[in-house]
Design a protein that fits this description.
74% of the residues lie in helices and 0% in strands. The protein contains 6 helices and no strands. The longest helix is centred in the first third of the chain and has 34 residues.
């Protein structure tokens, strides 16, 4: 078949279509803006985040330090009745879940997504520990797992706080005494 016969039959459309697709892909690739790392969070946004986290987590912190830890000690040494302890543990779990819901609504500055996830994770761990204590209330010798869960939650909260303190310093701000690790 001669070249003129192939041209009349439309054989040239395939290579032309391929050439057009390649050209279109090249044009899109060359005119597309490059993906850059997001700009670091401003000092104002980091401070606003720290303030919002401190406000949201204050009730949970108060529960851990002034009710949960002392109550566990009293329950383990037999000076706090199991039914009272179970009721308190149920309340702790509720507080941790409410705090988590409030914290989940906070706007997260660029670069602090991992820190925020760690705060949320710590509240999940505290809620789990509270549930474990509630279940173990009739049997104090079952408290070891719940106590370990509280320690893990404390460690996770401290980890998140240290990351937040680092973000504050990176933004040129002073450490925040409302969080560990200052």
């Amino acid at each position: 078949m001669t070249l003129s016969a192939r041209l009349r039959r439309g054989a040239w459309l395939g290579p032309l279509g391929l050439l057009l697709v390649v050209g279109l892909v090249a044009a899109v690739a060359l005119t597309r803006p490059s993906v850059e790392a997001p700009a670091p969070a401003s000092a104002a946004s980091v401070q606003a985040y720290a303030n919002a986290v401190a406000r949201a987590t204050a009730p949970a912190g108060q529960v851990v330090e002034t009710d949960m830890k002392p109550s566990v000690g009293s329950w383990e040494n037999g000076t706090l009745a199991a039914d009272v302890f179970a009721a308190r543990a149920g309340g702790w779990g509720l507080t941790f879940r409410r705090t988590r819901a409030q914290l989940a609504k906070i706007s997260i500055p660029t670069g602090l997504e991992g820190t925020h996830a760690a705060f949320l994770s710590s509240l999940d761990a505290y809620a789990t520990a509270a549930d474990m204590f509630r279940v173990a209330a009739p049997t104090p010798n079952l408290s070891a797992d719940a106590t370990a869960a509280v320690r893990a939650a404390d460690a996770r909260y401290t980890e998140a706080s240290v990351a937040l303190q680092k973000a504050l310093r990176t933004a040129g701000l002073s450490p925040d005494v409302r969080f560990p690790g200052f």
